[in-house]
Amino acid sequence: MMGLYWIVNILIVLTEFALALMLLKNYYSLRNTGVGRRLFGVSMVFLFQSVLAVVFYIHWAEMGLGKSVAGPLLLLSLSGLIGVGLLYSISRM
After folding, report:
1. Where does the pLDDT of residue 2 fall: very low under 50, low under 70, confident under 90, or very high at 90 and above?
2. 49 with 40: CB under 8 angstroms?
3. 31 φ, ψ (degrees, to nearest 5)
4. Which residues are CB-neighbours of 69 under 8 A, at least 6 positions away?
5. Which residue from 57, 2, 46, 1 is spatially nearest to 22, judged by alpha carbons?
6. Nearest one of 10, 22, 34 to 91, comparing CA atoms
7. H/E/C letters for each residue in the chain?
8. Which residue would you say has higher pLDDT here, 35 or 18?
9. Which of 6, 10, 21, 45 has the largest CB neighbor count within 10 A?
């Protein structure tokens, strides 16, 4: 059974994934400009990172790793969410 910390981690990363998708939508029309291409690329990196994080978190939870691993990863997941959230708020300006 998956612990609460792992479930929270996965929910945070899925939220980050949704924000990264919205970033891609915002920067899609700008992808032909120099800055737009870079921002589109950064959005793709965040999207890829989110997918990898979910895969690894599920794998580690199934391996039986507990709070000693999932707890510190909460900080990492939150920092990723904050980063994508800040970039998304800038893209809405």
Report:
1. confident
2. no
3. -70, -10
4. 60
5. 46
6. 22
7. CCCHHHHHHHHHHHHHHHHHHHHHHHHHCCCCCHHHHHHHHHHHHHHHHHHHHHHHHHHHHHCCCCHHHHHHHHHHHHHHHHHHHHHHHHHCC
8. 18
9. 6
